[in-house]
Design a protein that fits this description.
Layout lengths: L7 E4 L5 H12 L3 E6 L2 H9 L6 E4 L5 H15 L4 E4 L14 H29 L2 E6 L2 H5 L5 H21 L4 E8 L5 H8 L2 H10 L8 H12 L10 E4 L7
Parallel strand pairs: 1-2, 1-4, 2-3, 4-5, 5-6, 6-7
The structure holds nicotinamide-adenine-dinucleotide (NAD).
Nicotinamide-adenine-dinucleotide (NAD) binds next to helix 1 and helix 7.
């Protein structure tokens, strides 16, 4: 018996990193997982190793047509959507004064518009069912700010606020929405943001009260809780998974 038995769960950006760990955890808890990623190969590879008739579908969260086609395929094949995990994200480190508009647009398109696009397609399905759980991946950058990540911080702050507003709107349909904020997590994205520099890695590790980076599974466990019926009465909340790096 898993806590997500018989649930249909969509996870975005699930071909690698935190999203992949989330897909694996939701599947281990009994869900059928729709593994979506802009990278079709990794989406399909991840799905193939999961049980419960999980599927991999290429989806670009910045493209409403791509998102709508995926949700249409899911509702046709499975008849419902119980869980939506908005995990796809991207960033490029740069002081704001040196940043350029093309990067702002990409950061906001993926991290903020991506969440809006999937929510627009999935929330009506959940409203019609009268049930559902949305879990959005924010970031501690969106809660407390992060140097070299100003626009990303703005986009993730937007995700946190959007989660609260949709939590209020969707409550009448018995749909909850919560936000899980990773601290520094050992993934390819973190490596690309300077985490591949041993000095920076060591300094950050020292600053974290638990003295280690987050691993993708640390996030997946918390997401699985919010996706499950155990969290049905919890909505509009923001939780950091950061080994104590940020508190309150
Ligand atoms: N790693 C960290 O330290 C950290 C910290 C805070 C927040 N986060 C957030 O956690 C989430 C997962 O990050 P990660 O570290 O696993 O990153 P990652 O780069 O390892 O994985 C991100 C995945 O998203 C996919 N993706 C990128 N653009 C996409 C698009 N337009 N449509 C669909 N999929 C797309 C990528 O192909 C990739 O598979 C992101 O929202 C990120 O912002 C990560």
């Amino acid at each position: 018996m898993g806590k997500l038995d018989d649930k249909i769960a969509i996870v975005t950006g699930a071909g690698q990193g935190i999203g992949k760990a989330i897909a694996e955890k939701l599947s281990a808890e009994g869900a059928t997982v729709v593994v979506t990623d802009i990278n079709e190969a990794t989406a399909k590879e991840t799905a193939e190793r999961l049980g419960n008739a999980s599927v991999g579908i290429r989806t670009d969260v910045t493209d409403p047509a791509s998102v709508e086609a995926m949700v249409e395929q899911v509702t046709t094949q499975f008849g419902r959507v119980d869980v939506l995990v908005n995990n796809a994200g991207w960033d490029k480190a740069s002081p704001f004064m040196d940043s350029d508009r093309a990067d702002w647009e990409r950061v906001i398109a993926i991290n903020l518009f991506g969440v809006l696009n999937t929510s627009k397609a999935v929330l009506p399905v959940m409203a019609a069912q009268g049930s559902g759980s949305v879990v959005n991946l924010g970031s501690d950058a969106g809660r407390v700010g992060s140097s070299g990540e100003a626009v990303y911080s703005a986009a993730k702050g937007g995700v946190i606020a959007f989660t609260k507003a949709t939590a209020r709107e969707m409550a009448r349909h018995q749909v909850n929405a919560n936000c899980v904020c990773p601290g520094p997590t050992d993934t390819a994205l973190f490596a690309s943001m300077g985490g591949d520099n041993p000095k920076l890695r060591e300094a950050l590790t020292k600053a974290i009260p638990f003295r280690r980076l987050a691993q993708p599974d640390d996030l997946a466990n918390v997401v699985a809780f919010f996706a499950s019926d155990e969290a049905n009465f919890v909505t509009g909340q923001t939780v950091s998974v950061s080994g104590g790096l940020t508190m309150s």
